[in-house]
Amino acid sequence: MRDLAAGFGYLVKGQRWVARHGRWWGFGMIPALITLVGYAAALVALFFWTDDLIGWATPFADGWPSPWLDVFRGALAVLFVGVCLFLAILTFTAVTLLVGQPFYESLSEQVDITEGGTAPESGLPLWRELWIGLREAIALVIRAAIWGALFFALGFVPVVGQTVIPVLAFCVTGFFLAEELTSIALLRRGVLLKERRRLLKGRRMFTLGFGVPLALAFLLPLVAVFLMPGAVAGATLFVRDLMGEQARQDDDDGTGDDDRTQPGHPAAPYSGAQS
C-alpha cells in the first residue's frame, strides 16, 4: 500500500509542478489538444457505426427471437465500445508523446533541472530519438491490441467478465501509461524499452499507483489534455526516484523557479547520465 500511495504521490507532485510553472502547463497542452481533435473525430465516427459493425459481424444471429438478439448484440456493442476506449486511452498517450516529443522533452528536462540542477542527456541525435519513440509506440500499440482482444474475449465469461476483467484492464492500462510516460526521462538516461519494463516490473505497485489513477482520469478526454503536462512532469519525478537520484540540496521545495524554467529559455549545460 505504501508503494501505491507513493506512486500516486508523484502524479500529484507532477500536477503541482506545472501549476507552479504555468507557461510549461500551457506549453505541454498543445500536443495533447492536437491529438485530441483527431481521436475525437475517429471515436465519434466509430461509435456512430457501432450497431452496424456488430450487425455485420454477427449475421448468424439475424434470425434469433427477441429479446435474445437485442441482448446479445447489445452486450457485444458494450464490449466493443469498452475495447475501443481501452485502446484509445493507451494509444492517445503514445501518439501525444510522439507528436509532442520536442515539447515534452523540454518539459522533462526542466523538471530534472529544478530537481537536480542538471538534466541527463542521451547523447543521441533528435532523429534517432524520434525513431526510437516511433518504434516503441508501434510496439505498444501491438501489445495493447493483443491485450484488448484478450479482454474482449474474457468479457464473455459470466460474472468474471463483468467484474474482475474490467479491474484487470485498468491495471494493465495503468502500467502501460506509466511505461509510456516514463519513456521520455528514461530514454535521456539511456534506458530503452526492454530495460524500462524490467525497472517498472521491479516496482510494480509503485508503477500501478502512478498509472491506474491516470488511466481512470483519462477516460474523460478533456481531462487527459489538462493532465498531460503534469503527467509528464510527474513521470520525470517518478523516474528520479526509480533511479535513486537525489534532489538539489540548495532548493528545499524543489521548484527552482527561475528563468530557466520558462519555455524558450536556453537551459544551462547538462551532464550526461547513462543507465
TrEMBL record:
Membrane topology value: Multi-pass membrane protein
Subcellular location: Membrane
InterPro entries according to UniProt: CysZ-like, CysZ/EI24
Keywords carried by this UniProt record: Amino-acid biosynthesis, Cell inner membrane, Cell membrane, Membrane, Sulfate transport, Transmembrane, Transmembrane helix, Transport
Top-rank taxon: Bacteria
Location of region: Disordered: 248-275
Ranges annotated as spanning the membrane: 24-49, 74-99, 137-157, 163-187, 208-232
Keyword Transmembrane helix: yes
Protein name, as recorded: EI24 domain-containing protein
Record lineage: Bacteria, Bacillati, Actinomycetota, Actinomycetes, Kitasatosporales
